[in-house]
User: Fold these one by one.
Assistant:
Number 1:
Amino acid sequence: MNARPRLGRAPRPVLRRLPRLVPVRWPRALLAVLATAALVLGAATAAAAPGRPSVTGAARAAGAPRSANANATAASSCNTHASSLRPTGPPQVTAGSFMAKIRARGYLIAGVDQSTYHFGFLSPLTGQIEGFDIDMIRAVAKAIFGDPSKVVFKAISDAQRIPDVESGTVDIVAHTMTITCDRLQKVDFSSVYFDAAQQVLVLKSSHATSLASLHGQKVCATSGSDSLTVIRKEGAVPVPVTYWTDCLVLLQQGDVVAISTDNSILDGLAAQDPWTMVIGKPLTDEPYGLAISKQHPEFVRFVNAVLEQLRTDGQWRNIYQHWLGTPVPPPKAQYAD
């Protein structure tokens, strides 16, 4: 059997905020297409939006911070599966609403990932950001404009998700983002649109059986993810990086022994490198929500109305089947009010 090749570190991309994709076993010619696609996408986005504010650099005024008492109340009554605002009916763009302001602007600004295969990734074949999360955003855009393409995607890291929502740099974030009690004190979330669980990715040559079996060894996760806390709790040494594909490079080079995060993300990494595998029982419950500023509760209700349509008319099932395989029932919507 041929020895498994060791990949060198990929150079950092020239464009700011664009993560490195690592389609490990794809042909070299396709890798060249991928690099070109990243540059073309950034240029095309700028060219398609003359006169628009800079998506990567613009920041709107943040809303007033919540009081300490309000934060304490939110934490004490936290239910991550039933933390969102109930829709009042079908999604409607009402006069004076945040949705009306988005419509007047002409496009929705969404913070997304472009390095998580299946959920939010830059396709080397189309040069477009695609995936399950991206389709959630396109459904929101369609409800506002009647056109799912009226979106400006801003590629952000895990650590940027909450700051960008709080500052108003983006209208919404779809980024395999788990609803947690701590995050609920800072931003609002939609109802749960996907359920995941934290597991572990290792090389197939590894003898590890769980995260606990990696006690004292280096395990990778992204900065800003709640995965780091679980890694530390299980006795492994957390190694924080910016993007999940950075973790894959470190695993391939032997700088870490494993990656631990949501199985939805790990499945995408494993699909890019056939010498890896997901191991261990689920360690946590990871309910995903779309993050929205606390300044726009009407937008939260609107987005929840969109998600309810996706659940009931079969669109959620179709999106799941397209990106992830045999569909399962969508998470049942629960609300705080």
Number 2:
Amino acid sequence: MEEQNNPTAEDPKAATRAERKAAREELRRAKSEEKARLREEKSRAKEEKKAAKAEEKKAAKAEGKKAPKEPKAPKEPKAKKASRGKGERIISISIEGTDLRVVYSTGLSIESWDSVAFDPQVLKVGQIADPDGLGEVIRSAMEGRDVQKCSVVCAMPGLRSVSRVITIPKVGKKELATVVPREVNKLMTISEEDNYLQYQELGSEGDQMHIFVLAIPKAPLQTFMDALKLAGLAPSALDLKPLALARAVNQKDAIIADGESNSMELVIVVDDVPVLIRSVFLGEGVVTQDYAVGRISDELGRTILTYNEINKDHPLDPEIPIYLCGASAGGVPFALNVAALTGRTVQPLEPPLDYPDGFPVADFMVNVGLILKVA
């Protein structure tokens, strides 16, 4: 009898093929899922890395902004020098007593300096009386220098100039031009007719605002400009000696005394603002060192007392130190005497720029401040 074909006889093999096919499909699906998982992890890791870099950059930027506010940053002048040591050539000129002091620098790197004595008759009571004579002194000092390729910055004596922080009723910016001169005339007896007034808002409290005011007499400034013109100079910037000194000392709070042969400059700096300046004429003749010590100490005491009387609610902190500079105020013995007479510490000068060994820092602090103004 002929056997009939039995389809069920092939079922085991078919089942095996189906299982293998299912296994292959499962393996492909597993591999696909694994690849997708790996792609997702890689993408997530990339995003996390990108976010970390962004946070790192943000933190570094925040750190960079806070760095200059470190309280002792001025004590690390080398760090500042590296970032600002290159630049244009600068000639800084200042009248100190009966000397013309000139410093040449490239950016914040001092290269050379000179002190040129001139006839005391050029000045009268500390002010320029002979602009022609001073112009000739400056012209001679500039011989051999290509001033056309340099930035020239000059300081004029601060005699009769006044700075003060005044408090006025709160007004809009447009009204300041009217209110400030009126208040200055009332509080400081200074008029716009005879003085150049410069002012800057420092902040406000309630319905009052604090204004820094600087008054510069017009006549001495014009005479100084005449002398510079006669010397063939067109300065790119002008400054007052007290302001240049405050910039050179480079401290948030400081009491500065600059003593020269016939004059002294006194500056009180609070919160980086030269809140009080005084220029004192000592006489036509050159003063002795003993006289300079006593006079500077007396004037420092008088200046501090004046500030405290004006600011009874916020007198000067007794810990604010004194910084001495100028040809008549240099030297350790002088500093020790002033410290003993005033009861305050005297700190060394550490201006934030590069200068070679042998540079007489105390004598040229005004020039240093001028360089810092334009560098």
